[in-house]
Amino acid sequence: MRKAIAKFSLAVSTLAIGLSAASVVHSQQKITGGALTAADYIEIQQLVARYGYAVDTHADNGYGYADLFTPDGVFGNTTGRDALAELARTTQKERGGPAYTRHFLTNVIVYPTPDGARGNQYLMAVDVSEGGKPSTIVHGGRYDDVYVKTSAGWRFKSRQYVPVKIGVPPPTAKLPPSTRR
Amino acid sequence: MRNIILAAGLIVSLVAFAVQAQQTRPSGSANVMALTAMDYIQIKQLVNRYAFALDTASRNGFDYADLFSADGVFDSNSRGRIQGRDQLASLARGEKRGPQYVNHYIMNHIIEPTADGAVGRQYLINISHDDTIPSVGPNPNQWDLVGQKRGALDTVGGHYEDVYTKTSEGWRFRYRTFVPSKSGADPKLTGMLKMHAVKPDPTDTTPSAPGGLSAMDYLEIERLVASYGHALDNGYGTTDNGEPYAGLYTADATFGQSTGHAQLAALGREQPQGPTYARHFLTNHVIEPFAGQAIGKQYLVVVDLPDPEARAKGVPGTIFLGGHYEDVYQRTPDGWRIRTRRLFRAQSSR
What we know:
The complex is a heterodimer. By secondary structure, chain A is of the alpha+beta class. In chain A, 30% of the residues lie in helices and 32% in strands.
């Protein structure tokens, strides 16, 4: 099992390196209403908010997770309903269940595109204390998503996890005191 | 012994919740209340106010009590069912409180409409910030401070289970309980909450009262604030964060001691960054219409997350900074922008 997690993490890391090298798909800075209605934004927010529960509870044997995606949906290098369900079933296999919480997502942004929408969030993966031990932050980063509206509602068409990596400090990181908080 | 009491309390709470949920949960999805975008927004606002009301105990705890309906219940794992305005206010007046105290970070808010209202869940993680932070020299290089530990996660984490009701005053909690995170099966908890189509409504684009905010106004202000980390930490996945960061503000905006586009861009560039960096986590965003514009506040936690290399070595993330922002938003031809922003560092009144 540990091997499976390690393999999964490795795959995610490898993918992330590939992504950052190829200049990641990330939302534009422009903030406009665009072609999405208020109902669309809410439905996409609700989809994104279900992600943590789907992963952490292993609901419906992993299909609770898979069904947040289109039938040909992609997470990282996993494609398709059965493969996604298996991923959800086997991720953190020993830790999970209806009361288990690990994937904390915030900074949810959604933008319209000609084909639907795209968006991003931050993830903080927390190993919540069981039995009084301190909780720890295990890892974190950002998700890059593409959403599409299906007959059943908005779904993830693709989702990539981009783990955090700090950049390189500029040679002149010091600035005049007037610009400081 | 304490664990047994806690476990017993939890079981009682969950049974009570199951009964509550059953009373409100429809047998089929056909007869659920059709919720508009504004309903979802107001339910989210209710939950976002929860953390502020509890952590500050504002108005002597009555801001907290007034988030509940007249018959509303907070089902406490340790104290049992708390019902009634005075009892709820008393619950909010805890040991560590104060106008700048922040502890409850709530995320992943899911909502499902029911026959006579809605049910919902969120994740909770409690973070305790140091009241005093280590001293640094004047004008520190911000990159040198990464990894400095100024707080820690509490042992508490898990999720809330809610029942909401729409009163003449707006959406309120009718029932709320907290379920600590735990591995393993739990037959008392229901499965995933279902997603429903959101009902289109005139308030999507037109405020229901003059000077108010439409659903799109709320959503755009939410996105503006949710963009803060993305703009500042990674410049939306680019190599420069200065312009994206300053672009969140009006041209004459002020944040702390920085005023105007050039100073704000410089302030952004001074912060540690990178195309795949993530550090500023914002949540519990409260938004209010104000004099034709809007004001808001939200919690901040700056987290130094382990990168994949550090993670492989088992290095945990650390808490760098916590507190809350207070903002004024302004409508511009390009959309909503931050006009002023102030950071209040986390601090408890002692």
